[in-house]
Design goal:
This protein is of the alpha/beta class and 260 residues long. The chain is built from ten helices and 14 strands. Strands 1-6-2-7-14-8 form a six-stranded mixed β-sheet. Helix 2 packs across helix 9 and helix 2 packs antiparallel against helix 10.
Amino acid sequence: MRISRRFAMAASAAVFALMAGSAMADGEKIVIGTEGAYPPFNNLESDGTLTGFDIDIAKALCVEMKAECTFVTQDWDGIIPALISKKFDAIIASMSITAERKEQVDFTNKYYNTPPAIVVPKDSTITEATEAAFDGKTLGAQSATTHSNYAEAHLKKSELKLYPTSEEYKLDIVNGRIDGVVDDVVVLSEWLKTADGACCKLLGVLPIDPVINGDGAGIAVRKGDDALREKFNAAIKAIRDNGKYKEINDKYFSFDVYGG
């Protein structure tokens, strides 16, 4: 299963085309980078299709902009360098808008905002989502994310173990190799509803650190690409106003993921 998924991710670049209406053949062509390993926001299925909230939002934005969009999957730790090197034109992959990332890329306004949380095994003796509770415990997180940065800053008494994707930390907590994981509350909550997630429980939501967690998830574009950034901003506002955002939101969530 792992091998076939890796093969599919490697083979997926530039094969996901969205034609947003018959009149769009002459529209702007935009290549969108995403991870494909962060359900329910973006996920590469075994049949090679991309699914998730990020993907549906991206498609809706492309329709609104009358653009022809192509999706490319990219490992998370190389996704910003790939954007800068022009492998794609924008990143739509649940990327938090942070000051550190703004030094490398420009961001649109947010298109959703949810807090971090911690999950532990159901038989765990840990009862609080605090630094003291994880003193000497092993905590998992995806590398190069706001969640790993948060753990380093606020849960530093724990031993932090980093993973290339969320799938790897899920395997380790299922098999009892780590004591907890930190990630987006929606990602963790949705995983707990699955058969694999039956091992574990939500320990608690963590207080947002504005410096680390940023201002929500935005679309990243190359520095100075103001025209594309503003087109995305206008499209985000349009789908919020015309009900398309709510339609997509309600497909995945029972609450407004846009946040306050």
